[in-house]
Amino acid sequence: MQWLDILGLVATVFTTGAYVPQAYKIIQTKSTRSLSTPTYTMIVIGSALWLLYAYDRRDYPVMLANGVTGLLSLVILIMKLSAKEEATAES
């Protein structure tokens, strides 16, 4: 494995792993009030587009990174949208 491959792997772990603490905190606190819906929508769409690009190129590390990032972001987005619906229903 070349040093550039290792660098890419480390970058993938940090970039993808950055969403884990946020998802964990939301699951524990059940609070999504401070999150931006447009931001997470854009992240999900961007990850999906990167996933399609990587699939076409058969770039499996990029597919894995964006698949996991997209999935974690989608979970956060769904929790955010669900919280909005619950708040609206309670009003």
From TrEMBL:
Cellular compartments per GO CC: membrane
UniProt keyword list: Membrane, Transmembrane, Transmembrane helix
TM region positions: 6-27, 39-55, 61-79
Pfam family, one: PQ-loop
Gene3D superfamilies according to UniProt: 1.20.1280.290
Main location group: membrane
Membrane topology: Multi-pass membrane protein
Protein name as annotated: MtN3 and saliva related transmembrane protein
Organism: Spirosoma oryzae
Taxonomic lineage: Bacteria, Pseudomonadati, Bacteroidota, Cytophagia, Cytophagales
